[in-house]
């Protein structure tokens, strides 16, 4: 991963990205009438923030969604996951009850017992005869499934509505702030930088961020539900999960630092492309008359290359993470299978709960990798909200009242 850092940083020379000292010298201090003097980072070079996305950015998006609407989404997710785990537990309880009822004279029910029970159930259905006990299990299972469907639909509707509300509010705030900006702001800010905010960053807020945030919340709740059910069904799996969680934590932390900075570099190198494209269209006649087409093509190719380097290294970092997660996942599933076999050999626990734990154990690796990947992508997409939030607070605006002296 350190090679990715060095490769990415070496692709930008001193003329492309300024040093911190040079960045501090370039921004001008703009003093809007009626407001306190503030230092804003606008000018020829765009400033790239370093480090984790601040909690203020997450709070800004939370408030854009609406605090009560966002809370309703989290509650609906909790109820959806709880009803899903409850339906799985009820199914395992049903299987355990069938085994104890039909395994007469056997120490432990076998697969043949469940097969005979299934055959009897199919025959009774064809004859129109269903026992009251079977009706009870089917009714409860059907009710739980119906409740899960309701909570799933509510969660999908609330999340989609919240994402639309956030996108509309952020767009309106950005548009209103830019329309009220001072003339000096448009003089010192390239057009491509503003277009980048209204195109690439707003697209992330409209589409990419809600999509990946939905995956992150679903996998996070699914992971907690899975850990709870496994701990209840097969407590010895916790011996494997504890070092697994520690290893996953350091791995995702190491990966997130690189991915976050690459996203910022990608966003910064995209603005010059928009700027040159706009300037080229405006002065196309002059460029052709001056026979400067080759020079502009070379400059455009250079800027595209800088942006594509960031994208390429970002995709390489994703593959780096996937390979290590798959290797760890194979070791984890093998360990869980060994623990389940040992438990079965010692005749501890019932087959329903052991089967439930095994089914959840097969999916826990995907959930852990999904949480890391989706959280990293969510934080990466939150960089767009961070960039938009800069314009909400740092753009100097014209006075809305009084007169201009």
From TrEMBL:
One of its GO terms (cellular component) is membrane. SUPFAM superfamilies: ABC transporter transmembrane region. GO terms for molecular function: ABC-type transporter activity; ATP binding. Keywords: ATP-binding, Membrane, Nucleotide-binding, Transmembrane, Transmembrane helix, Transport. Signal peptide: none annotated. The chain crosses the membrane at residues 61-80, 134-151, 211-230, 236-255, 325-342, 354-375. Residues 73-380 form the ABC transmembrane type-1 domain. This is ABC transmembrane type-1 domain-containing protein.
């Amino acid at each position: 991963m350190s090679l990715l850092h060095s490769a990415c940083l070496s692709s930008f020379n001193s003329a492309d990205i300024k040093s911190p000292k040079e960045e501090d010298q370039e921004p001008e201090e703009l003093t809007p009438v009626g407001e306190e003097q503030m230092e804003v980072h606008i000018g020829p070079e765009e400033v790239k923030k370093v480090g984790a996305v601040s909690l203020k950015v997450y709070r800004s998006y939370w408030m854009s969604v609406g605090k009560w609407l966002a809370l309703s989404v989290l509650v609906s997710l909790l109820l959806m996951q709880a009803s899903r785990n409850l339906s799985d537990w009820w199914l395992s309880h049903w299987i355990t009850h069938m085994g104890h009822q039909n395994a007469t004279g056997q120490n432990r029910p076998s697969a043949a017992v469940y097969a005979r029970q299934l055959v009897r159930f199919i025959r009774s259905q064809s004859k129109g005869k269903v026992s009251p006990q079977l009706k009870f299990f089917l009714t409860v299972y059907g009710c739980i499934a119906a409740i899960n469907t309701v909570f799933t639909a509510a969660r999908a509707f609330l999340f989609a509505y919240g994402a639309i509300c956030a996108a509309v509010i952020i767009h309106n705030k950005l548009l209103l702030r830019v329309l009220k900006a001072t003339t000096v702001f448009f003089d010192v800010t390239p057009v491509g930088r503003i277009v980048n905010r209204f195109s690439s960053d707003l697209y992330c807020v409209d589409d990419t961020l809600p999509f990946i945030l939905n995956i992150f919340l679903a996998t996070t709740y699914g992971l907690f539900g899975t850990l709870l059910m496994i701990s209840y069904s097969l407590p010895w799996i916790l011996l494997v999960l504890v070092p697994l969680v520690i290893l996953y934590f350091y791995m995702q932390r190491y990966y997130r630092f690189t991915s976050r900075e690459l996203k910022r570099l990608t966003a910064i190198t995209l603005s010059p492309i928009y700027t040159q494209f706009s300037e080229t269209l405006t002065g196309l006649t002059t460029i052709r008359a001056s026979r400067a087409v080759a020079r502009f093509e070379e400059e455009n190719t250079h800027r595209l290359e800088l942006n594509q380097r960031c994208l390429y290294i970002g995709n390489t970092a994703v593959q780096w993470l996937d390979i290590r997660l798959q290797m760890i996942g194979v070791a984890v599933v093998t360990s869980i299978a060994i623990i389940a076999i040992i438990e079965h050999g010692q005749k501890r626990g019932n087959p329903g709960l052991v089967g439930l734990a095994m089914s959840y154990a097969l999916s826990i690796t995907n959930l852990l990798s999904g949480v890391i990947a989706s959280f990293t992508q969510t934080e990466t997409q939150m960089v767009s909200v961070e960039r938009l939030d800069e314009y909400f607070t740092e753009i100097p605006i014209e006075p809305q009242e009084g007169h201009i002296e």
